[in-house]
Amino acid sequence: MIEDPDADEFKEYKQMKENGADAKTAYLKSVENGLPNLVPIRMLRKVYGLSLYEAKEIIMCHETGAKSLSEYQEKFILPALEQMVEIMEEEDRNQELGDN
Hints:
This protein is mainly alpha-helical.
């Protein structure tokens, strides 16, 4: 019989799920346990069967206080993109003035 090398990787979180813990609670425990970088996403996907979007939403909402991934994007990403566009437009105007 071939053993699964990842069988014990998320044992604690699998046990939490079996005991009724939701994905957010398991994520918070993974933070407390110091899981590095992308490991919590992998754990949420493997143990809870979440999509990448759903796992990312749990993490971003916890880290930023947003209520959803959409709210996070509207609150943080959209303004940054708008600022980048303004900077690029200003650079284009300055380049046009320099070309004349």
